[in-house]
Design a protein that fits this description.
With 515 residues, this protein is α+β, with helices and mostly antiparallel strands. The chain contains 11 helices and 21 strands.
């Protein structure tokens, strides 16, 4: 394709998905989506290949959406009609736990299918155990929606809507978020149809071929410039309950074909609590780590992801098999980049980070308002410090690798009877080094209630802090306390009205010798 024409069409595609993603974020009901940006939006061609993603979203959602979209296109090939909307939250087909619901809208110009637009967002509630790690198998964790049609020729599927409405604690919020996903998909479809008509093209297949092939070629060319070989990395961290998880990676760089393989052989096997990770989610954060170091300026699509292969033993904690519980899969999944970065430090030390605090500390609360009305909070989360960079300190209280923002405490206090007594940086918690690790943060809260309430909390790295790299010192470990007592429990906790919760998140590791 002509380079100028390609650039015009490409910028229009990015504009369509980004505008729709931001609109979805603005109108979503769930605070973790609206305030923190826990979502993804992407455009797919007729073969189910992700062509363009929005400029906002999390790596875990975006790169998992690439798989979910491909699965839905394949499963419904030849079965879609104008007005149909597809849905699933199958952990092994999409983003790894029930809370993340994927919506895929086939885009029709008249009766002609021209593309698909998809989104994945974190919903407030999906029944079951909640966001914690205490379930013993996946069926305790909530409502499983297999690949189905949420709408058929523009008409809501009454059976599916009835099942969803009766099986969640907050149906108004869930249906509000689903409506936001559906409406944003319809608006994106209108813009894409207008774009195709304006440029006289029937669909985006020729355009997607060009974009995907150029992206793959550029990624392979970047890999060919690296030193070939096999490089190893390992990370260890404790999870709720105190168990230590080990992630091992062997990163193989094939400079001849321009490919990278990441093998997690030797990592901890899956465990009987909800921190297991499906391969889609492992792939999402593995490819994010590599592409962030390799060619972050390149578009993220099926082409740029193709040269990177991810392997993990079936039944391991990063490739769990049914019926493993997975609702708190981020507890392990967000550590996936850490051993990969350690391996890449041997190849491109100037581009990697030291270990950071890893998984965000997620909180979900269930209780009753002063008037007796029950409530279930959306998930809210707090990060520790990022690892230091070669020439810059690590940012403090910054989510890496997920990139989500913290929900403002004012929003939380307005939504439920909670009061935050402290929220401040944890000064000095980042590891020393030529570049210092980012600091964690201190958060303290209590509930304004005279009745018991339930707390789901999944803190990690309470026993040892993130490693430094290149001679850098480790960051400080975290601390999770209730009424001044250290707690590390994978299960949902029953709290008393006067209980006070304190979080001190870990600091990031330092980069280079402090001297």
């Amino acid at each position: 394709m002509d380079g100028v024409e390609l650039e015009i069409l490409w910028s229009n595609l990015i504009g369509i998905v980004t505008e729709r993603s931001k609109a979805l974020q603005r109108i979503a009901f769930s605070p973790i989506v609206r305030e923190a940006g826990d979502l993804a939006c992407a455009l797919f061609d007729l073969r189910g290949r992700m062509v363009a993603q929005a400029n906002t979203g999390t790596p875990g959602h975006i790169n998992s959406l690439a798989f979910a979209g491909a699965h839905l296109v394949r499963l419904f090939e030849g079965q879609c009609e104008p007005g149909d909307v597809l849905i699933t939250n199958d952990p092994w087909l999409s983003a790894g736990h029930f809370f993340d619901i994927t919506i895929l809208t086939p885009i029709y110009d008249g009766e002609r299918l021209i593309a698909y637009i998809g989104s994945t967002i974190h919903h407030t509630d999906i029944s079951g155990y909640g966001i914690g790690a205490g379930a013993r198998d996946v069926h305790e964790e909530g409502l499983w929606i297999p690949p189905l049609k949420l709408y058929e020729r523009g008409v809501p599927n009454p059976v599916l809507h009835a099942i969803i409405g009766r099986n969640v604690r907050t149906p108004d919020a869930v249906f509000g978020d689903l409506a936001a996903q559906v409406s944003s998909g319809h608006a994106a479809a209108e813009h894409l149809i207008a774009l195709c008509r304006r440029h006289g093209i029937d669909d985006i297949e020729t355009l997607s071929d060009e974009i995907i092939q150029r992206s793959e070629d550029a990624t392979r060319e970047a890999i060919r410039k690296l030193k070939p070989g096999v490089y190893h990395g390992e990370s260890q961290f404790d999870v709720p309950g105190g168990q230590v998880i080990t992630l091992k990676t062997a990163v193989t760089i094939d400079a001849e074909k321009g490919g990278i393989t990441v093998d997690f052989e030797g990592s901890t096997m899956q465990v009987p609590m909800g921190i297991n990770v499906v391969l889609n989610y492992t792939h999402a954060y593995s490819t994010f780590a590599i592409r962030s170091c390799l060619n972050p300026e390149l578009p993220n699509n099926t082409g740029s992801l193709a040269p990177i292969e991810i392997k993990a033993p079936l039944g391991s904690i990063v490739n769990c098999k049914y019926p493993a519980p997975v609702n708190a899969r981020h507890v392990v999944g967000m550590y996936v980049p850490m051993p990969i970065l350690k391996a890449l430090h041997q190849v491109m030390p100037e581009r990697v980070l030291a270990e950071g605090s890893g998984a965000v500390w997620t909180i979900q609360i269930q209780g009753k308002k002063p008037d007796g009305e029950p409530f279930t909070s959306s998930m809210f989360n707090y990060s520790g410090g990022m690892g230091a960079r070669a020439t810059k300190p690590g940012p403090s209280a910054t989510c890496y690798p997920t990139g989500v923002a913290a929900v403002p405490i004012e929003i939380l206090e307005a939504a439920m009877p909670i009061v935050f007594e402290r929220k401040e940086l944890r000064r000095g918690s980042g590891g020393a080094g030529r570049s210092r690790g980012g600091d964690g943060q201190i958060i303290q809260f209590r509930m304004l209630t005279d009745q018991p309430w339930l707390l789901n909390a999944v803190p990690s790295r309470l026993n040892s802090g993130p490693d430094g790299v290149g001679g850098g010192m480790p960051g400080k470990a975290g601390r999770f306390q209730i009424n001044g007592q250290d707690v590390s429990e994978p299960r949902k906790l029953t709290m008393q009205a006067s209980d006070v919760v304190l979080l001190e998140t870990p600091g990031g590791g330092g980069f280079g010798s402090p001297e």
